[in-house]
């Protein structure tokens, strides 16, 4: 016997959907349809422990406070700063933001 799943209700803003479709049509007519799905990613450079420490010191924060600002466990942050582990992916992006646009971390 197969059980049916309950329908899932999805909320969306109809005006935003219509605007997005209109933008898509406009880009297509302008011959820019490739712009819809292509985007170059800026490759992030790995950070050395000394660079990570310098970012924290620029903030004037302790390791515990800076880990809290980054929303990572203190043990994880200390492993980056000591060179035991290297941040990658989202963590590396977050450290790059902390370095280049620190005010952005104060918003969230």
Which descriptor suits the 3D outline?
A: elongated
Backbone structural class? mainly alpha
Segments where pLDDT lies below 50 for 5+ residues? none
Distance between the termini: 48 Å
* Rg, Å, rounded: 22 Å
Q: Tell me the name of the CATH homologous superfamily of the domain at 49-107.
A: lambda repressor-like DNA-binding domains
CATH topological fold name of the domain at 49-107: 434 Repressor (Amino-terminal Domain)
Oligomer: single chain
The major β-sheet equals: none
Mean pLDDT: 84
* CATH class term of the domain at 49-107: Mainly Alpha
Number of strands: 0
The CATH architecture of the domain at 49-107: Orthogonal Bundle
Query: How many H/I helices?
Result: 6
Instruction: Tell me roughly what share of residues is in helical segments.
Output: 55-70%
> What letter string, H or E per element, gives the SSE order?
HHHHHH
The portion of residues forming beta strands comes to: under 5%
Task: Describe the structure in brief.
With 108 residues, the protein is mainly alpha-helical. It has helices at 14-29, 49-59, 63-70, 74-82, 89-100, 103-107. The protein is built from six helices and no strands.
Walk me through what this model shows.
- This protein is mainly alpha-helical.
- The protein has a domain at 49-107: lambda repressor-like DNA-binding domains (434 Repressor (Amino-terminal Domain), Orthogonal Bundle), CATH 1.10.260.
- It has six helices and no strands.
- The N and C termini lie far apart (48 Å).
